[in-house]
Amino acid sequence: xxxxxxxxxxxxxxxxxxxxxxxxxxxxxxxxxxxxxxxxxxxxxxxxxxxxxxxxxxxxxxxxxxxxxxxxxxxxxxxxxxxxxxxxxxxxxxxxxxxxxxxxxxxxxxxxxxxxxxxxxxxxxxxxxxxxxxxxxxxxxxxxxxxxxxxxxxxxxxxxxxxxxxxxxxxxxxxxxxxxxxxxxxxxxxxxxxxxxxxxxxxxxxxxxxxxxxxxxxxxxxxxxxxxxxxxxxxxxxxxxxxxxxxxxxxxxxxxxxxxxxxxxxxxxxxxxxxxxxxxxxxxxxxxxxxxxxxxxxxxxxxxxxxxxxxxxxxxxxxxxxxxxxxx
Length: 328
What we know:
Elements: H1 2-28, H2 34-43, H3 51-61, H4 68-80, H5 94-129, H6 134-148, H7 151-165, H8 184-194, H9 196-222, H10 225-232, H11 237-259, H12 261-266, H13 269-274, H14 280-289, H15 293-321, H16 323-327
Helix pairs in contact: 1-4, 1-15, 2-3, 5-6, 5-9, 6-9, 7-9, 9-11, 10-11, 11-15
């Protein structure tokens, strides 16, 4: 088992090196020189250095005065030491900007993913065990409706109903006007109340695909020979479904769970924008369109690390739920 994990870790490190190089190359090949724009802005400040001096300093600081490969190796050496420089757009250290906005998106992602699992898995199993019944059709229609709903439309519909018409939920933002006058516990409740509609939006638009995934895989397992054998031996239907069929359904399901890790940290750009939430999705989008190379480089490599980590977790879970992987 440890040999299997070590092999996957080494492969992930090699892949990360080349992914980081591709991202760095793309940053260096941008058609517009944002460094020149920043140098021009700084040179126009009172008592500032000249444009040429600022340009040379910025190019040297971010290794843009070297070739792509030497520049990437220099960036990589600093990245290993967690030195990512300052954000050009937010004018603060990259890690500081990241830490200020990541936790809001992470909390939203974890809570919404938790509700997706506890809703999608039971409903998917029920739909599969009652195939072609009214219950199955109802669950399938709900799943398809969730998949088909655009995020901006559903979020706008929730805001119109609960915030404008009924006036029972906050329209946008993370805190209320009197937030500073509240106690610590009430401040926590206030933030949680503001996150209800965004989390509902994320759950509804995501739960349908997972529900159909569980249903499809359960149907395949329920029609397998070993399930018919278990029923012929006289095992109870509950034991056949949950001890045999669902256990094998977990094998493809761990791929979804492992692959969802980047989504917990990447933020929900559309949802955060519609509800005016300062999450990492909206923050990174603003940095990218502003040409903030230090922050964009860090954020994309961070997502690459999470993707590889998610795949590694999925591989390990495969070995846990499927002994054939460990043996092979």
